[in-house]
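ok, trying the design again with the full structure, not the truncated one.
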């Protein structure tokens, strides 16, 4: 009995403390509310109570403010109404434009912005009590959001968006297990950890009506469509204002739209608005390709737009949500089998997707996406007083997601994504590339079948991001790519990679020789990732199945590596490469610098233009230390002429592909090396005929095709050097280091797919292990035979008889004739590439 009495005493003390806290809270709120009502009557009064109220709301706990939510909300909404009314343009009958002189607002900008700050803080701390209360607040915010930049300040417009987002965050799942709100995730699927600070956790409250269920009902469809339109329009207006536009408002609009889509949360409720929303997002991403500053070029805004577009598509075009429309079985997202099961479950699934007719509304099914609502979605009836009137909406905001609709919609989406995503993969801002990676992960995980036309493009983007300069981006992309290969979607990914491989090989010369270096690097690295992660079988199936396919592949790389490629590209690139200070004449400073430079480097290490610049300096050569000699001929190494084609990064990516094609089966090495060796054998044969006929070097070189044959042989030796480097023990370890396989923990792949399941990270095999297994199968005797056959050709006397300067050419009977310096340069490069091979395998 004593214990019970003691507990009762503690309970009474607790209740007494709570009552005292409530009294103090009410007393302070009463003071602020009276001041706000007085401010409404006397607009010229200084709004000093608003900052104080904001500080009080910030430090008060939610359970203390909740009982006084309506009491605090009332004066704030009155002031917001007054602020909007005095800023809204007056209604004029007819279409006559009247110049209205600007007068001071009844509610100043400082007061209006303070009201929105207090309202946002109040909505963060308290719950909405009913649907009617939510409708009233949304109506007030809707009028405020419709104000233009000329009518309201940037802070005011941003505050309106933040208040609307706070309203959305008030919506939570209700306790009713049978409620339709259980279909809603409630948070953006691709929410970045950096955005979590703006989302405060709040316990759900029990209300008679489920606010979340109301939001994705047909009754609220008009309001949802109107807010989607307002948010997209707000972002578009800021972009159109150029450098005067606000990037903060644009970011807030996109982030709030993502939250709205997540709270609506069902494909049935949001699919009707897909054409307008997606086309507006595509416009944003398209403009970002040319705008690098201002609100339109905001990196944060682009990141939000990319994630928002992906989340909208993931919600409407999710594979599992469109099973009945596609006529697929329950495991459509993994196996993609046609649905032949007429079970009760599939029948009920089809019934669930049928539109519901009401007495006042008729179903309007939009089969063609072009007929659907655009960014100016039908607005719900806004009156001066009263709640939302949905009776004036013609038809329901519903679209039947049939198979034809999905096919047509996905085709339009594919065009929009293909025009933007590949460019954004190589964007200079890391945050934009992170947004693209998050979007690619989400779309491949959730919409791999509905967006099957975009699947190749998305995988290509993923391969580009695997080689991203940022370790954070590249490691995340690699983990997700490995999760795809370890899931039950592996077969489809392998087929897609095979198609990407074929397409990339065909356009490789055009990309390398005719594109900017950044785009060329991304394309070549994409091909390298496809080969490496697919494994040796891809090489065997597509390159080594016949000598013809192997020869065609090596011809493509010979074209990319050839010395003639030094003259590819734009004229501006060639002119900028000339270090001339006055016209085309070299300055004295350049000539002196060249002399000192050439004294400290071997002549064969110069580029073609450097060899022919100053022939008088080529005779000056300094002795190099032994370690420098070893470093000079160490592989991997870029040939001197390739500096005019692209960067070292581009060459290493091209060389990496060659190193993976060499020896994936016991007889493949000879098949691969025979093609480049044919050029060397042809050169040996031509030189032998020249010696037998006693022909001079000058005459032989000017014969049609001889100079080209010499350059082809030089390129062939370069290819052989890279191919044979692929048989070394260092190769697989270097690729494992490049793709960070030593530092990866395979258990980290769980959950990396942005919602993807069916991933088995514990059973996945690192790509390096696959290549090592293939390497162990190679017969060493066959490798020795291949290297021996190459050495046999390299040691031919005809190749060593090529002259390197005028003095050696004088030994010929008519050597006094003039010989172009290009001949000596090409011969020197051929010597250099052979020295690299001899140093690698004979020392």
């Amino acid at each position: 009995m004593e214990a019970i009495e003691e507990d009762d005493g503690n309970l009474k003390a607790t209740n007494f403390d709570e009552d005292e806290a409530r009294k103090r809270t009410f007393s302070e709120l009463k003071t602020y509310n009276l001041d706000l009502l007085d401010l409404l009557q006397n607009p010229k009064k200084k709004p000093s109570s608003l900052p104080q109220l904001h500080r009080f709301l910030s430090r008060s706990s939610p359970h203390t403010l909740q009982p006084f939510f309506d009491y605090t909300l009332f004066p704030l909404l009155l002031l917001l109404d007054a602020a909007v009314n005095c800023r809204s343009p007056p209604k004029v009958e007819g279409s006559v434009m009247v110049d209205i002189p600007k007068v001071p607002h009844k509610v100043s900008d400082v007061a209006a912005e303070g009201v929105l700050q207090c309202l946002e803080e109040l909505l963060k701390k308290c719950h909405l009590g009913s649907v009617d209360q939510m409708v009233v607040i949304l109506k007030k915010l809707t009028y405020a959001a419709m104000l233009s930049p000329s009518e309201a300040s940037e802070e005011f417009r941003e505050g309106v968006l933040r208040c609307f987002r706070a309203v959305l965050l008030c919506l939570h799942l209700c306790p009713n297990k049978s409620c339709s709100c259980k279909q809603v995730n409630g948070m953006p699927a691709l929410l970045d950890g950096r955005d979590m600070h703006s989302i405060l956790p709040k316990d759900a409250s029990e209300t008679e009506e489920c606010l979340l269920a109301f939001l994705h009902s047909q009754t609220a469809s008009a309001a949802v469509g109107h807010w989607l339109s307002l948010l997209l329009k707000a972002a578009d207006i800021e972009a159109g204002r150029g450098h005067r536009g606000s990037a903060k408002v644009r970011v807030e609009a996109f982030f709030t739209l993502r939250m709205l889509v997540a709270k609506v949360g069902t494909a049935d409720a949001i699919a009707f608005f897909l054409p307008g929303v997606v086309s507006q997002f595509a416009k944003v991403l398209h403009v970002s390709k040319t705008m690098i500053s201002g609100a339109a070029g905001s990196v944060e805004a682009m990141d939000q737009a990319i994630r928002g577009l992906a989340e909208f598509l993931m919600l409407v075009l999710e594979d599992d949500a469109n099973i009945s429309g596609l006529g697929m079985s329950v495991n459509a997202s993994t196996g993609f089998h046609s649905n032949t099961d007429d079970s009760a479950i599939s029948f009920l699934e089809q019934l669930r997707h049928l539109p519901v007719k009401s007495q006042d509304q008729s179903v309007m099914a939009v089969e063609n996406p072009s007929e659907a609502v655009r960014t100016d979605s039908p607005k719900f009836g806004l009156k001066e007083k009263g709640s939302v009137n949905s009776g004036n909406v013609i038809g329901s905001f519903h679209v039947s997601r049939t198979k034809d609709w999905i096919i047509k919609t996905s085709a339009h989406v594919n065009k929009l994504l293909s025009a933007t995503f590949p460019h954004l993969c190589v964007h200079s801002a890391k945050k934009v590339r992170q947004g693209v990676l998050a979007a690619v992960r989400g779309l491949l995980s959730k919409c791999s079948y509905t967006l099957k036309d975009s699947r190749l493009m998305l995988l290509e983007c993923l391969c580009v991001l695997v080689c991203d300069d940022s370790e954070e981006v590249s490691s995340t992309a690699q983990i997700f790519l490995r999760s795809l290969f370890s899931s039950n979607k592996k077969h489809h990914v392998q087929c897609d990679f095979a198609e990407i491989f074929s397409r990339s090989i065909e356009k490789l010369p055009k990309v390398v020789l005719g594109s900017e270096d950044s785009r060329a690097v991304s394309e070549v690295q994409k091909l390298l990732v496809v080969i490496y992660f697919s494994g040796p079988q891809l090489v065997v199936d597509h390159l080594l199945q016949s000598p013809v396919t192997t020869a065609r592949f090596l011809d493509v790389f010979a074209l990319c590596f050839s010395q003639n490629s030094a003259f590819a590209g734009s004229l501006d690139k060639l002119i900028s490469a000339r270090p001339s200070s006055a016209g085309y004449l070299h300055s004295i400073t350049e000539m002196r610098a060249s002399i000192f430079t050439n004294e400290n480097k071997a002549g064969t290490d110069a580029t073609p233009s450097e060899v022919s610049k100053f022939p008088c300096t080529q005779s000056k050569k300094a002795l190099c230390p032994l370690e420098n000699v070893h470093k000079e001929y160490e592989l991997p190494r870029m040939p001197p002429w390739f500096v005019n084609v692209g960067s070292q990064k581009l060459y290493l990516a091209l060389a990496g592909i060659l190193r993976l094609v060499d020896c994936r089966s016991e007889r493949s090495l000879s098949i691969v090396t025979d093609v480049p060796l044919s050029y060397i054998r042809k050169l040996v044969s031509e030189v032998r005929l020249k010696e037998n006929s006693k022909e001079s070097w000058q005459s032989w070189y000017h014969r049609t095709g001889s100079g080209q044959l010499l350059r082809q042989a030089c390129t062939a030796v370069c290819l052989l050097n890279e191919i044979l480097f692929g048989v070394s023990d260092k190769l697989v370890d270097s690729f494992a280091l490049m793709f960070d396989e030593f530092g990866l923990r395979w258990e980290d792949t769980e959950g990396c797919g942005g919602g993807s399941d069916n991933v088995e990270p514990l059973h996945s095999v690192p790509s390096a292990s696959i290549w090592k297994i293939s390497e162990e199968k190679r017969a060493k005797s066959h490798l020795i035979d291949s290297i021996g056959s190459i050495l046999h050709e390299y040691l031919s006397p005809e190749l060593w008889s090529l002259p390197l300067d005028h003095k050696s050419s004088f030994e010929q009977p008519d050597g006094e004739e003039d010989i172009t310096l290009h001949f000596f340069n090409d011969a020197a490069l051929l010597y250099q590439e052979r020295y690299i091979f001899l140093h690698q395998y004979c020392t």
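Keeping the full-length input from now on. The mean pLDDT is 75.
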